[in-house]
Inverse folding.
C-alpha cells in the first residue's frame, strides 16, 4: 500500500464557478477585465432579432476599427472568408437598421468616393429601412403541361417557414473607377531665327537701327537692347534677300494685336514666318557692239573699236 503524500499540490481550478458548472445547461461566462484594446458594443446589436449573424459580426468589426480605416467590399472580402456577395448583403442590412450610412460624392476630377459613417447605436429619428432586393430577370414563359389530377399531399410534409427560405444572393456593388488623368501637352519649341548667308557689318547696323526705330511708328514696340541684338540678324537676312527697309518696317508694324503682350516674341514670329525668298539672279543682257566707220571704204560696221571693216582687213578670206 502506497504512502499518501499530503504535500502534493491540488488539481488546478478551471476558473468557472462550480455552482454554474454543476448545472450543466446554458452558457457560463469566464470574464476577464479589459484595460486596453477593447470595444464597447451594445446588446441591442449583439442580440438583434432581425440582423443576420454575419451582419452583427461585421458591425462589431467596423466599430472596432480606427477612424479613416477602409471598409470597402473588396477590403473586407480579403480580410474574412465570406464572399463579396455576403459582405455586400450584410452592409445593406446594417444600413437598413441604422447602424451604417454610406453616401457617394463626385470629386472635381470626376472620381466617385464613398463616405461611410458607423453608428454604435441607431438614432431613433432614423427609422429602419427595408433592404433593397437584388434585381431579378423575368423567367421565360414555360409550357403548360397537360392537366393531371392533383395528388394528395402526405401528412408528414409541412410547409417551410418564410424565415428558413434562402435569401436571394445580392449582386456585389461596383467599385468606383478613377477618372483617367489628362495627358500632358507637349512643349512647342519655336523655330530658329533666320540669319544672313554672308556677314555684313553695314547691313547689321541698318537692321539694328530699324528695330530700335520701330517705337517711332508704335510706342508699344519698344524693345530692349538685348532683343534688338537678338533680332538684328533676322532683319539683316531680309535685307540680304532684297527687301527694302520700308518693306521690313511695314511687315513688322502692320495689324498688331490689341494689346501686344510680348512685342519681341511677336516680331521674332513675323521675321521667321514671313521671310521672303531670295531674289533670283538678274538675266544677263548682251548688248551688240557699236557702229564703227571703216577707215578705207567709209562703210558702217559693228565692232568694239574703230578700224577697218571685214572686207578691207588684210589676211581675211574674201577681202580685196
Amino acid at each position: 500500500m502506497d504512502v499518501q503524500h499530503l504535500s502534493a499540490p491540488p488539481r488546478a481550478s478551471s476558473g468557472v464557478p462550480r455552482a454554474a458548472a454543476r448545472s450543466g445547461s446554458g452558457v457560463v461566462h469566464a470574464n476577464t477585465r479589459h484595460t486596453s484594446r477593447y470595444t464597447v458594443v451594445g446588446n441591442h446589436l449583439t442580440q438583434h432579432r432581425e440582423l443576420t449573424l454575419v451582419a452583427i459580426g461585421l458591425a462589431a468589426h467596423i466599430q472596432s476599427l480606427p477612424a479613416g480605416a477602409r471598409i470597402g467590399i473588396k477590403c473586407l472580402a480579403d480580410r474574412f472568408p465570406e464572399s463579396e456577395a455576403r459582405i455586400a448583403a450584410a452592409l445593406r442590412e446594417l444600413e437598413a437598421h441604422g447602424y451604417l450610412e454610406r453616401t457617394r460624392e463626385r470629386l472635381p476630377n470626376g472620381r466617385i468616393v464613398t463616405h461611410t459613417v458607423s453608428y454604435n447605436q441607431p438614432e431613433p429619428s432614423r427609422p429602419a429601412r427595408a433592404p433593397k432586393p437584388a434585381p431579378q430577370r423575368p423567367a421565360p414563359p414555360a409550357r403548360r403541361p397537360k392537366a393531371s389530377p392533383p395528388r394528395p399531399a402526405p401528412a408528414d410534409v409541412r410547409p417551410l417557414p418564410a424565415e428558413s427560405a434562402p435569401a436571394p444572393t445580392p449582386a456585389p456593388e461596383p467599385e468606383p473607377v478613377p477618372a483617367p488623368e489628362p495627358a500632358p501637352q507637349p512643349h512647342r519649341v519655336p523655330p530658329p531665327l533666320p540669319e544672313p548667308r554672308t556677314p555684313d557689318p553695314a547691313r547689321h547696323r541698318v537692321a539694328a537701327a530699324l528695330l530700335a526705330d520701330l517705337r517711332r511708328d508704335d510706342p508699344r514696340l519698344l524693345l530692349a537692347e538685348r532683343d534688338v541684338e537678338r533680332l538684328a540678324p533676322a532683319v539683316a537676312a531680309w535685307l540680304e534677300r532684297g527687301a527694302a527697309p520700308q518693306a521690313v518696317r511695314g511687315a513688322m508694324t502692320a495689324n498688331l494685336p490689341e494689346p501686344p503682350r510680348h512685342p519681341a516674341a511677336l516680331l521674332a514670329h513675323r521675321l521667321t514666318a514671313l521671310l521672303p525668298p531670295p531674289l533670283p539672279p538678274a538675266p544677263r543682257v548682251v548688248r551688240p557692239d557699236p557702229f564703227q566707220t571703216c577707215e578705207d571704204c567709209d562703210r558702217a560696221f559693228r565692232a568694239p573699236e574703230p578700224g577697218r571693216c571685214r572686207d578691207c582687213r588684210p589676211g581675211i578670206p574674201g577681202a580685196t
About this structure: The radius of gyration is 53 Å. The chain has ten helices and four strands. The mean pLDDT is 79. The longest strand covers residues 100-106.
